[in-house]
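--- STAGE predict ---
source: upstream dedup step, 1 unique chain passed
mode: sequence only
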Amino acid sequence: MKKALFYIQLFIFQYVVGQAYNDRVLIYIENSVKNFEIIENSIKTNINELNIELEDIGATKIRQWLPNARPTDRDGDTYLNRYYIIELGTDREDMNLILQSIENLNCVYSSETMIIMKPDYIPNDQRWNQQYGLQLIEADLAYDLWDIDNGEIPGTVEDGEIVVAISDVGFEWDHPDLVGNVWQNLGEDADGDGVVIVQSGNTWVFDPDDINGIDDDEDGYEDNFIGWDVAFNDNDPMPPNNSYSHGTEVAGCVSSSTNNNIGVASVGWSVKLMGLNTSNDGQYIQYGGQSILTAAQMGADVINMSWGGWGGCSYTALINNAYNNYGCILVASAGNGGSDGNTNFDLHSPSSCNNVISVSAIGPNDNFGCWATAGETVDLCAPGESIWTTNVNGSYGSYWGTSFSSPMTAGAVALVWSRFPDADQEWVEDRIISNTDEFSDMEGSCQGESLEGMLGTGRLNIYKALSAGVFPSLYISDVNYLNDTDDDGVLNPGEQVQVKLIVGNEQGWADAENVVATISTEDDRIAIIDNTIEFSNTISSGSTSFTLIDHFLLYAFEDASLGNIPCTVHLQAGSEEPYYETTFEIDISISLDQSGFPITGMVIKSSPIIADVDGNSIGEVYFGSDNGNFYGYTVDGNEQWGFPFNTGANVRSSAAVRDVDLDGVKEIVFGSNDGNLYIINAFGMQELSYWQSGMIIGSPAIIDLDLNGDFEIVFTTQEGNSGKVYAITEDGEDMEGFPVNIGEKMLVGAAAGDLEGDGSPDIVVCTWGDNIYAIDNFGIIKPGFPVTSTNRFNAPPTLVDIDGDGDLEIIAGNDSGLLHILHHDGEEMAIFDTGDDIRGGISVADVNDDGSYELLFTGYDDILHVWNPIEGAELQGWPFDMGSNSLSEPLTADLDSDGDLEIIAAKKDGMAYIFHHDGTPYSNSPLNLAGSIESSPAIGDLDGDGDYEIAFGTTAGLEIIDVKADKGDRLSWSMHRGNLERTGSLGMTLVSNDKNVSIPKQFNVSPNYPNPFNPSTTINIETSQDDLLAVRVFDSRGRLINTLTNNNVQAGYHKISWNGKDSRGHNMPTGVYFITVLSGTKINTQKLILLK
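--- STAGE serialize ---
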């Protein structure tokens, strides 16, 4: 099976938009040019003017486009065997000039580019998308077994043709969608011109030069050019006055001309149609028996009979004669049920006869509608409801009945026989009947009678019939990256990587031997160093395989932009022709993703936080989602033990982290729309649930509000149009003076800091009532507040000493685009008007290292601002127009250890930017992430490898970018609200990223060695105190395999080994396992690979 590339010809009616080749031209040689030929082993023809043109345009080859086309393969006066391809060798930019120059030649009728289309051949017939039946029987996959775009036509035979006789009521053989597939009996071609029907004006007629009243082929019928009218004993089965439609409808189901850009497609594609009229009144079949014999005598290979009557077989001798003596395969409709319109189980003739394939009908989605006949003589079913097909007067219609499931099957029989022309009848019949798809209604009932065993083997599947058991059916199960430069399994710019395929073979198909995979691409971002993988082992039916040694070898250029590289993988199997071939499109991703990420399938509108909460010296990432869960993930993309934590409502509150109860272990604090403020530990265990009646949307802030040495939690709420400010202790007690009923809803969190430097912390909140409030640590609104602005606030406030006087200024931006800078007492210091909403948050940094702070913010004005409030101006190189809205707080960090801060910003549309301090883009920026970004990212050294990771929450999931440069130690605003406590206060907690993440040395687990391993692997564990030590092994599905130890141990060094066996001593198979170490409340999980 080869990749299908369809070339649009001159005579089609409607172009399919696609990418065109720029290295070849399709030409049509004028019909007046006789005996055109290509001179062997040259780039020359027998026409001098064409030879000169070929030389002028630098042609490298000229060849016939459809070498299998016969003189009869044509559309009107357009003959397929007169098309030729001129190859130019390389892509050309002057294609239009070349096309015009060629078309000016006297010997050329037309010239055109050739359009590229994708495999799984989809015909361009206008009603293809309405023909559910062809897609249900997988005709599109079947077509792809032919290399259609290089001249292979489904239904054709190299020597001869497959003919299906339509024994029915009339046959409008000149229908535009049938005439191209009409059988032409060249035994009656008296003038020897290769055709027996010709066009006279706009009408198709029998070739006058062939009409002689003589039985030239001695088959017993004079001038039987396309079939026979058995009812009226003449040579034209055309229905009188085009009034008999049934036969024309049936013929279209067998073999309407396919891929001709009009009408309908058919399963037979190009198999030939012999017309036989069997009725003299258009209602009844008076000459059915005679038509079977006539069809057989005239050489039909397949006979379709979409008619019949009730009772046992009445045509036994006639059918056996056609089957045994003439070698025909006979197909018949099973019947349309009883007179009441319901399914019956009665015998029907001729469908119940031996040597006849009996076909009942199903509808869309394999539903058996309990109207068609069922019974033990039914062989299979095919689509028979709402079937689009041809009709008289050149028209089309949609019809029901087993009259249409039968010809669809007859066309399938013919297509299989055309593919295997040397096969006998029994083999072809078995392919059709034994390779069906079972469907659920086969076990159902109609009118209380069981359908089990009454619908044959299942529903027709032409793709299986052509391929199952003869060919394998290969697919690519997985694509793995190995041995990239930093060995994280992610291909980065400037890296070389080994790519391995896991290839599978569908159940029920032939074993695949000598499988060879080759990869190619037209994308210049990578170089393919080794493009071939050879599979040494047979891939058995129903199994998968990969190679231990062989691989593709690829290199991504250093300046390669990030994204997917579209590649084509060609799979070939077999030891001799015809080989099984198929192609797949895969994407090789050039990425900066952290290994194990992204995590998809969730909507994230809270800001992630990177922190080492479980104390294992390696960070985790935590975030809330709109599915009611709060998640924790380890460095390798696995869920943290005990997560997710379910709240039952949206979690858009961005979590804060701190050891709030001073027990030496950090906690995670966040709110939910369910009204609860949660405190949980590193293993997802709840330590506090504080409920109140409003929703908590903003991030909580953690601060020692009462200056007693432990920490309190401050958060805001929304309850309708109202809201409160809460301050609670770690055990859920309200602080004195709290909650403060503001009476205005708040969708963003509070800022906390010592505004006037008097030693007492204060709280600042912004509301949807257009106000800014400052509240002291006893819950009293401070003098000078509230300050009323011009619009509501959707960005939280920030606190920083802008003017260096020892007091904190309040920075807040509203939905009118006003950025307020207030002194600690509410007096205005400065104001900046952006003109549109300020969203996400305002961060602070000394970007240009001049000793003065800049404010960084974005919003609905689409601009990333870096503004110095003292000077009242943007820094040089700023602002930057991002082109669309942003809902994210800009972040800063020294990503590349050059001593300068980089700035990270994101747009709602999923585009993330990284800039150097002077506004120039950082390498590989911008980054196009999946989903919308509606929260602020987070920066941290998640994996402890010395470089930063950037975590983005999006509406598609969690994406983590690995920066791939040594990090610098600069004070920076590296996460939403500036710190792990989410206080939004630079004056209190702006520290380096390293200091934000505690790295305790008390508990440590070494990587297991060796890994992969066989037969055993070992880990070293350090514990700092006497405590319980539990070490357990789990499989990839989370099932406990073995407990290696579960005892109280003394502080010290411990070595634990696993021998690859379960708790019962049974050897475990090759696979991925996880070892979990629990010491007190600390936990570590690692991935093990057992390889045998």
